[in-house]
User: Which sequence fits this backbone?
């Protein structure tokens, strides 16, 4: 499928395999995410795209790598495929841009306003995906870039989940509650890796501006 990121366009695609067909801008997902991608995402190697989603949402676990975050972010702009009378034909309607959903809408912006001061970036405001990636990759002391990546992955994942929650369940969780969920998620990740040398100081860095 081509032009999948175009906003507001209904796209038709003959769906083949989730991992081998180039149905996203990332190309072949098995090449993008690696041979252990099926294990990490809990999607068997020869699954179809439709088998990666339920009736109204994508069934993907918490992203653990930068490419998985990019895939999650892309899928926030793509509704799960809805089968037509043809068994292997599906439609996607793209209604919102990735940048708007994850970075600039009022809801996501409020969540980032809780997050960024904890990462020593109280004055940062992301207007697009490029700015976010540049901020993540910017030189920082020690292993602080690792902390930024962990927090960013968790933040994008939970914003994406809340977007689906609003769309499908009409339930709105306040941004400060989502922030507390992200905070707990980050703490659990860092505590789970505290035995690794590179993570020894990251929890204290995250809690420094609590």
Assistant:
């Amino acid at each position: 499928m081509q032009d999948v990121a175009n906003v507001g366009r209904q796209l038709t695609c003959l769906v083949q395999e989730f991992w081998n067909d180039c149905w996203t801008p990332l190309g072949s997902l098995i090449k993008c995410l690696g041979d252990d991608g099926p294990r990490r995402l809990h999607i068997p190697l020869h699954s179809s795209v439709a088998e990666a989603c339920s009736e109204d949402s994508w069934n993907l676990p918490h992203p653990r790598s930068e490419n998985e975050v990019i895939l999650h972010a892309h899928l926030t702009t793509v509704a799960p495929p809805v089968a037509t009378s043809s068994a292997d034909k599906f439609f996607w309607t793209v209604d919102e841009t990735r940048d708007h959903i994850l970075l600039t809408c009022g809801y996501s912006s409020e969540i980032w306003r809780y997050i960024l001061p904890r990462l020593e970036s109280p004055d940062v405001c992301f207007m697009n995906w490029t700015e976010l990636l540049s901020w993540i990759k910017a030189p920082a002391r020690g292993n602080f870039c690792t902390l930024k990546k962990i927090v960013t992955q968790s933040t994008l994942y939970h914003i994406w989940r809340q977007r689906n929650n609003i769309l499908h369940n009409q339930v709105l969780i306040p941004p400060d509650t989502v922030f507390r969920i992200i905070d707990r998620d980050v703490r659990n990740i860092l505590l789970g890796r505290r035995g690794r040398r590179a993570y020894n100081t990251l929890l204290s860095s995250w809690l420094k501006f609590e």
The two ends are 45 Å apart (CA to CA).
